[in-house]
Amino acid sequence: MESVKSEKQSKTKTTLHISGAEAIVRCLLEEGVDLIFGYPGGAIMPVYDELYKFQDSLNHVLTRHEQGATHAAQGYARVSGKVGVAIATSGPGATNLVTGLADAQIDSTPMVCITGQVPRHLLGSDAFQETDIIGISTPVTKWNYQITEASEIPEIMAKAFYIAKSGRPGPVLIDITKNAQFDSFDFSYEKCERIRSYKAVPKPDEKAIETAASLINSAKKPFIVFGQGVILGNAEEEFKAFIEKTGIPSAWTILGLSALPSDHPQNVGMVGMHGNYGPNVLTNECDVLIAIGMRFDDRVTGNLDTYAKQARIIHFDIDPAEINKNVKADVAVLGDAKETLSLILDKVEANTHETWHQEFAKKDKDEYEAVIRHDILPTKPGLTMGEVVMAINEASNKDAVIVTDVGQHQMVACRYAQFKKSKSSITSGGLGTMGFALPAAIGAKMGAMHREVVAIIGDGGYQMTIQELATIFQNKTPVKIVVLNNNFLGMVRQWQELFFEKRYASTEMVNPDFVKIAEGYFIKARRVTERHDLNDAVREMIKSKEPYFLEVEVEKENNVFPMIPSGASVSDVRLK
Amino acid sequence: MEEKRYTISIYSENNIGLLNRISGIFLKRHINIESLNVSKSEIENISKFTIVINTTEDWAHKIVRQIEKQIEVIKAYYHTDEETIFLQTALFKIASNLLFDERQIQNIIKESNAEIVTVSRDFFVLSKSGRRHEIDEMHEKLEPYGIMQFVRSARLAVTKAEMPISRLLHDFYQDK
Lengths: 576, 176
Description:
The complex is a heterodimer of chains A (576) and B (176). Chain A has 24 helices and 20 strands. With 576 residues, chain A is α/β, with parallel strands linked by helices. In chain A, strands 3-2-4-5-7-6 form a six-stranded parallel β-sheet, with helices on both faces. A six-stranded parallel β-sheet of chain A has the order 11-10-9-12-13-14, sandwiched between helices. In chain A, strands 16-15-17-18-20-19 form a six-stranded parallel β-sheet, sandwiched between helices. In chain A, helix 13 crosses helix 16 and helix 17 runs parallel beside helix 24. In chain B, strands 5, 6, 7, 8 and 9 form a five-stranded antiparallel β-sheet that branches. Chain B has six helices and nine strands, in the order E-H-E-E-H-E-E-H-H-E-E-H-E-E-H. At the A-B interface, helix 1 and strand 6 of A face helix 1, helix 2 and helix 6 of B.
């Protein structure tokens, strides 16, 4: 490490003689952090004591569980593009971060978690609240490090923020022993800009871009599937310019949602298990598949042996490990999407692909008749999830940040929610973490106070982190919470119906009075059971300047379609 | 695709926890590590992992990409046996009386090109370096006489082709 340290000798700032705990807070301020989420406890108390002193410049939000702190930090990061920060004590405080870390790792969310640790001399003694959080968090972090001496703090914290936000973003955990928080040292801070063993962004290869451009130019039925890479790379404008010039129909993965406005004529919908009919079926009819900032998750591809075998594949990604991981690329364009998409723009020819677009339109019509119409304009009694999402679109003027949990409501919300701006859909995609939405919505609201934030949650996931209602109440955070209550773990029930002969093992939920619970937290609440009350209730919720809870009792046994059964081909997407 | 033996060479910073991070990559994919060695490398302050696995080339490639993705890894490579020069070392601890009672043991030592590391009143220690099958053969020959202790090291390997780490680091410092 000596050589690494010697790179950083150009210190310009005056040094302060301070405690490690104060240094941690000053590092956060140096990184521009003004909001963190967390929960105090023994091994992190020196830092909390400093947070008390610095409360005018650094706001700490007390969540009701450390997992809530991580999801709030994720929501904040996803909506703002900044690094989310969560802080917890050692032992159970640290282990409660693990789900959030894993979620941030698989969904590439920049987050720094700070944990307290027992004093260095007690490490390995099974001291009170000692746990090996470095060992535990290794597989779910982009990087982690245990600080045992105060003097390490500035360099490690600078590295933590650089690693979390650069390249393909991800979570970093820094574990700090209590002695390192108490000890004093000469503090000075310098931001980290590079690390010799880490290449954040690969340099785009001119030749790959040429090859990709000529493939695109000669394609008759090119098809784009874009993911979160467009959002993380702040490449929305470059992406739009690229698709508008080439005229290529473009579909999104769940995490790519909102990178392209919903009403864009080339936006053909979602790919994947519950994605739209056209994009799934036509994946196996296109001649060139252009994947941009996505990783060919199994929920997107279905059976790999029958996925886009007829097509040449162009894969744009910032992470070399994603190339050929699941789908073999004919051309790999490595680099930051903002850079690679602007480089390719001059090399591609203008086109409209009108007849090819018509095939998407035809499939869209099929899907509308078979599925969409019944979802959003139901004629049968019993509320559908789809019509609730449509009511939210209308009341919020399609401009809300929609935070979703995991399950049927998530698929329906992602299918029907409409967006004008990027960074507006926040969901747990890769990990599928039930309980994500409520705390993530708190973080999202705090990261975008000027925007309407609506959490749409199922009755199952809601109860996994329901204690965060207290955080909402304490901070008077005006998030809007919609629980779509079907009194079932709906997605699992759907699979039981379709693949396990309706043996509803442990999926029926006997629920409490959610309205009373919200009111117990002094949150305005309303329940809707009839269609004629829906629009009024949603409008009232959106108009509210305060937090608002809306429970909508929806049909118990509705299913989400289209659906690609697990392990089936994208061509075998079912409409019923 | 056909499974083969691949030697993975990793150049990295020498930090606590990196071994755990690297072994986790194999664990996550349910791949058994045949042998693992960590030592200094030809470059000051840079560690070298030498890991042997049996897998397909496709997996070897994917694993190396995942290893390189780790922040403290500078560069990783995979090579087949034909592309490397490699050996292992084994130590055999044997009761001293056998050296005199069983004349055949002396022949085994000579034929195997083994070295006597130490001899004491109660036991002597043989060291044998070479290919895995040579060590196995020697083990087979000695086994009937009784081996008190046996240990075999991980594979040590250097590659025929260059692994240009110094140049990578040079470029890093030049870029600044």
